[in-house]
Structures are given as structure tokens and as C-alpha cells.
Automatic annotation (TrEMBL):
<feature type="domain" description="PA14">
    <location>
        <begin position="24"/>
        <end position="161"/>
    </location>
</feature>
<dbReference type="Pfam" id="PF07691">
    <property type="entry name" value="PA14"/>
</dbReference>
<protein>
    <submittedName>
        <fullName>Outer membrane protein OmpA-like peptidoglycan-associated protein</fullName>
    </submittedName>
</protein>
<keyword id="KW-0472">Membrane</keyword>
<dbReference type="InterPro" id="IPR036737">
    <property type="entry name" value="OmpA-like_sf"/>
</dbReference>
<keyword id="KW-0998">Cell outer membrane</keyword>
<feature type="signal peptide">
    <location>
        <begin position="1"/>
        <end position="21"/>
    </location>
</feature>
<feature type="compositionally biased region" description="Low complexity">
    <location>
        <begin position="214"/>
        <end position="229"/>
    </location>
</feature>
<feature type="region of interest" description="Disordered">
    <location>
        <begin position="198"/>
        <end position="260"/>
    </location>
</feature>
<dbReference type="InterPro" id="IPR011658">
    <property type="entry name" value="PA14_dom"/>
</dbReference>
<feature type="domain" description="OmpA-like">
    <location>
        <begin position="267"/>
        <end position="381"/>
    </location>
</feature>
<dbReference type="InterPro" id="IPR006664">
    <property type="entry name" value="OMP_bac"/>
</dbReference>
<dbReference type="Pfam" id="PF00691">
    <property type="entry name" value="OmpA"/>
</dbReference>
<dbReference type="InterPro" id="IPR050330">
    <property type="entry name" value="Bact_OuterMem_StrucFunc"/>
</dbReference>
<dbReference type="InterPro" id="IPR006665">
    <property type="entry name" value="OmpA-like"/>
</dbReference>
<keyword id="KW-0732">Signal</keyword>
<dbReference type="InterPro" id="IPR037524">
    <property type="entry name" value="PA14/GLEYA"/>
</dbReference>
């Protein structure tokens, strides 16, 4: 008898369980994932419950590399209360955020785990369009979206708040287009043609088309924009033509040249080594070929000592915009770290940090002093 009762009640119980346990499939944001740092080629789309990602050492998804990609999230945000909302994004590298078609954060540049904040007034119960654009340049990517609701301002203080959770986010795909019945074409009787007198053809000599000059390249990606905007720091002067050293008139001494050791020896935890021969283009983070020998030496050192872990530090002088100096130092450090990873060093053994002009080795009064402060170094950790 009990078994019979259970069989009768099973459909009702199952329906109740389904109603309680099944999450709303529309919760979250739609993410469109692209190759390239400026939405070059769409690879896939998916629904992400929220934005809380750290892709260090891994790819966001199949078909994307671990670097040089961009993502656009779209959906709807429901406001639980009326008042001012504060949104904070922790990002590496660039981000833009719109809430209700109002851009509240615009940091479409290269950054290394920096937070950006924007605020907007929302009304309780209303839903607002939410859009987040993001790109990652080199090495690891990271993006986290926090918010502070109106009733949390006093307790939050300077805290970014909490991760924006799926219960306030929704995405519903657009309804399929309605099929339209084809309209039968109206057949009309063609009008009578008037035949004009035929003149003999005139031979025309076609002038050659003028040579079209391609339009000047615009900064279509954050990386292009970064490298084309002059920055205030100068690591090493770059010249359009390599200088050619003239041979000395004096006869050189005949002796065995000093050979630099192939690796860095006797490295201790906490020790810092300046890479004196790692050079960049002036005010850019483009490695000069003269840097490769010393970087290869560091690669060999890391391969010979598998337990060794290092932090690459980038430094500038204090001349010019300190924000740009900070960014430049971060990306010079990232370029060096990326070189090591591309030559077989596991990315978990290398990390990169930029210090701008905050850690000078010298004063900054003269160019000779500033040259010493502009450097890349590594520290064992």
C-alpha cells in the first residue's frame, strides 16, 4: 500500500523539486569572445554567471590564446533599491563599462591589476542595459566586477564591495525573426523604347588611375595606440639607422677576450640583479635586438635551476606623467617575462611588476642620473 501511495505522489514531489532546484537559465551575462585586442574575430559565445575571472597561465576558452584577446559582455541589471550605485572593476588590461547606456568607466589602456570606479543613480525594480568591454594584451588576463548598493555605502568605505552576483543579472536571447511572406512581383508592360540615332564610337584614351595613397593607420587596437603615443620616459635612445663604429687607429692588444659566464651564478632568495644590457626603444616597450644575449642567459639560468622563481621589475625615471611612467614600467617588465615564457620557462615561475619612478637608484637631476634609474631587473623569490 505504501509503495502504491509513493508512486501516486512521485509526480507531484518531482514537480515540486524541479520548481525549487532549477536555476533561472537567463541569469548572467552573454560573453562574446574574440581573438585580438580589438574584437578582431569572434571565436565563441557563452553565458557567464558573473565577472570574476583570473586567467593566469590559462586561456578563457577553446580557440583563444592565453594572451591577445577581447571580450564583450552584455545583459540586463536589475536594481534592488533606489539610490547611488558604485561599480568597481579590477582589471588587467583594459575595460569600459556602461550602465543604462551611460559610460561610467573608461580605462581602455594597458594596466596591471588596477581598479577603476564609476557611479550611477538607479531606481528600484527597474532593469538597465549593462555592457562591459574588456581586452587582455600580453601574459595573464584578469577582470572582476564589484558593486556597492545604496544601503552599503556607509559600511563599504573604500572597499570595492562584493562581486556582482547572477541574481541581479539576466540575459535573454533575442526572439527569432518573424517569417515574412514573399510578395509576388507586379508585372508591368514594358514601355516602348525610343531608338536614338547611332553615332560612330569615339576613341577615348583612358587616363591612368591616380595612385591612391593608403589612409594613415589609425590606432585600432590598444596595443597600437600604446606604442604610437610618445611616453615621457627614455630607456635608450633609438636611431633610424644603426651607428657604425669606425675601427681604431691604435693596434689592439692581443689577448684572449673575456667571456661572460653563460648563466647567472650563486643566486640567493631576495637577491636583485639589474639586466644592464636589456634595452628598449625610446619611450616604448619594444625590445632592441641587443637585449637578446642577456635574456638568453637568464633563460639558460632558469632552465638549469628548475626551482628558481623570479620577479621581473620595470623602472623609469620621474620625468613626465607619472601615470604613463607607471604603465611603461609595467609593460617593459611584461615584455621581458613574456620573452622568458616564449623560450620555455613555465609562466608560474615568472611574474612581472612595474614601479614607475618610485624606486630610483640615483637622483633625477641630470640625464646621467636618470639613465641609471631607467632599468629592468629581476629578483629571486
Amino acid at each position: 500500500m505504501n509503495t502504491f501511495r509513493l508512486l501516486l505522489l512521485a509526480p507531484i514531489l518531482l514537480a515540486g523539486i524541479r520548481g525549487m532546484a532549477q536555476p533561472n537559465a537567463d541569469h548572467g551575462l552573454k560573453g562574446d569572445y574574440y581573438t585580438g585586442t580589438n574584437f578582431d574575430r569572434k571565436v565563441f559565445s557563452r553565458i557567464d554567471p558573473n565577472l570574476n575571472f583570473n586567467w593566469r597561465g590559462r586561456t578563457p576558452g577553446a580557440g583563444l590564446d592565453r594572451q591577445y584577446y577581447s571580450i564583450r559582455w552584455t545583459g540586463r541589471l536589475q536594481a534592488p533599491a533606489s539610490g547611488m550605485y558604485r561599480f568597481t572593476v579590477e582589471v588587467d588590461d583594459g575595460v569600459r563599462v556602461w550602465v543604462g547606456n551611460k559610460k561610467i568607466i573608461d580605462a581602455w589602456e594597458l594596466h596591471d591589476n588596477i581598479t577603476f570606479t564609476g557611479s550611477v543613480m538607479l531606481e528600484a525594480g527597474k532593469t538597465y542595459d549593462l555592457r562591459v568591454d574588456y581586452f587582455n594584451d600580453m601574459l595573464e588576463g584578469e577582470i572582476k566586477l564589484y558593486w556597492v548598493k545604496p544601503d552599503e555605502y556607509r559600511t563599504a568605505g573604500s572597499s570595492p564591495g562584493s562581486i556582482l552576483t547572477p541574481e541581479f543579472l539576466s540575459y535573454k536571447p533575442a526572439a527569432p525573426p518573424v517569417a515574412i511572406r514573399p510578395v509576388a512581383p507586379v508585372v508591368t508592360k514594358p514601355a516602348a523604347r525610343t531608338v536614338a540615332a547611332i553615332r560612330p564610337p569615339v576613341q577615348v584614351t583612358k587616363r591612368p588611375d591616380p595612385v591612391k595613397t593608403p589612409p594613415s593607420a589609425t590606432a585600432t587596437s590598444p596595443l597600437t595606440a600604446k606604442t604610437t603615443v610618445p611616453l615621457p620616459d627614455a630607456a635608450q635612445p633609438s636611431t633610424s639607422q644603426p651607428s657604425v663604429a669606425r675601427p681604431s687607429a691604435a693596434r689592439p692588444d692581443i689577448e684572449k677576450p673575456t667571456v661572460a659566464p653563460p648563466v647567472f651564478d650563486k643566486l640567493a632568495t631576495g637577491e636583485t640583479i639589474i639586466l644592464t644590457h636589456v634595452l628598449f626603444k625610446q619611450s616604448e616597450y619594444v625590445l632592441l635586438p641587443d637585449s637578446y644575449a642577456e635574456l638568453d642567459k637568464l633563460v639558460l639560468t632558469l632552465k638549469n635551476q628548475p626551482a628558481l622563481r623570479i620577479e621581473i621589475g620595470g623602472h623609469t625615471d620621474n620625468v613626465g606623467d607619472q601615470r604613463l611612467n607607471q604603465t611603461l614600467s609595467e609593460y617593459r617588465a611584461k615584455v621581458v617575462a613574456n620573452y622568458l615564457i616564449q623560450h620555455g620557462i613555465a609562466d608560474e615561475r615568472v611574474r612581472a611588476r612595474g614601479f614607475g619612478g618610485s624606486r630610483p637608484l640615483n637622483g633625477n637631476a641630470t640625464e646621467a642620473e636618470r639613465i641609471v634609474n631607467r632599468r629592468v631587473e629581476f629578483t629571486v623569490w
